């Protein structure tokens, strides 16, 4: 890793591989931003579906508590949290599942949310410890939710950004993918353009 380069972290929570419409949006963005930013950034992609992420249960949970009690955050199990905290720009791609995000993305979040690495606590409450200036979230949804209360995916990630101290959050999304499958391309078109434009101006 070159210290002078911007560290871009892509957290890929898409499950359906090349079939994923969400990943298609992310790829449109990546193509643009890579072309313009060539040589100025280091890119790391975490394909969550291929990673052995574990939930915080049983001994895995107890071990974490013991490290925190000893104020020891050096163990490799905290590497993902450190990587997230040290990224300059965060990208997340994940479909809308069960009104929010797939469990693999929640598992990842469970593993990176760590007092003393990604956020801290004091008498005034919680404060963020991440250095990223922004999180850009790509998603597609089967139905139409807009900004309504049933939409708990982008809303949740935006709240996490606040907790982690990441000042900017933006969601690029296409809706109605399964509701009106015959209109898929039409419904994707706006988000594809938005993703392209976001890639074009990413380094401005
Ligand atoms: C397990 C599962 C849960 C889903 N839950 C919802 C949901 O709650 N609301 C919705 O509108 N669509 C839901 N969908 C549909 C997806 O949001 C939609 O198909 C999306 O475009 C999938 O993204 P992908 O093509 O990137 O995999 C769900 C799909 C799956 C497979």
Mind telling me which CATH architecture this is? 3-Layer(aba) Sandwich
- CATH fold node name: Rossmann fold
- What level of helicity do the residues show? 25-40%
Number of helices: 6
What's the overall geometry?
A: globular
Q: According to CATH, what is the class?
A: Alpha Beta
Q: What is the assigned CATH homologous superfamily?
A: Flavodoxin domain
Question: How confident overall, as mean pLDDT?
Answer: 96
Small molecules held by this entry? flavin mononucleotide
The succession of helices and strands, N to C, reads EHEHHEHEEEHEH
Report on the structure:
- By secondary structure, the protein is α/β, with parallel strands linked by helices.
- The protein has a single domain (6-200), classed as Flavodoxin domain (Rossmann fold), CATH 3.40.50.
- It is 37% helix and 20% strand.
- The chain has a five-stranded parallel sheet with strand order 2-1-3-6-7, with helices on both faces. A two-stranded antiparallel sheet has the order 4-5.
- It is globular, with a radius of gyration of 17 Å.
- 34% of the residues are buried.
- Residues 14, 16, 20-23, 95-99, 140-143, 177-178 line the site of flavin mononucleotide.
- Flavin mononucleotide binds at residues 14, 16, 20-23, 95-99, 140-143, 177-178.
């Amino acid at each position: 890793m070159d210290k002078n380069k911007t560290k871009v972290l892509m957290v890929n929570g898409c499950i359906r591989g090349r079939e994923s419409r969400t990943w298609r949006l992310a790829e449109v963005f990546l193509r643009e931003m890579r072309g313009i930013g060539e040589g100025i950034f280091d890119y790391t992609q975490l394909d969550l579906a291929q990673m052995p992420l574990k939930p915080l249960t049983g001994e895995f949970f107890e071990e974490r508590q013991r490290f925190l009690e000893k104020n020891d955050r050096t163990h490799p199990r905290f590497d993902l949290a450190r990587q997230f905290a040290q990224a300059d720009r965060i990208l997340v791609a994940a479909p809308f599942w069960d009104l929010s995000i797939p469990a693999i993305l929640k598992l990842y979040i469970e593993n990176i949310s760590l007092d003393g690495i990604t956020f801290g606590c004091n008498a005034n409450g919680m404060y963020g410890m991440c250095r990223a200036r922004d999180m850009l979230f790509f998603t597609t949804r089967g139905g139409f939710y807009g900004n309504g209360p049933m939409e708990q995916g982008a809303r949740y990630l935006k709240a996490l950004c606040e907790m982690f101290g990441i000042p900017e959050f933006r969601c690029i999304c296409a809706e109605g993918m399964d509701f009106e499958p015959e209109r898929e391309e039409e419904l994707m078109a706006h988000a594809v353009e938005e993703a392209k434009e976001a890639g074009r101006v990413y380094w401005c």
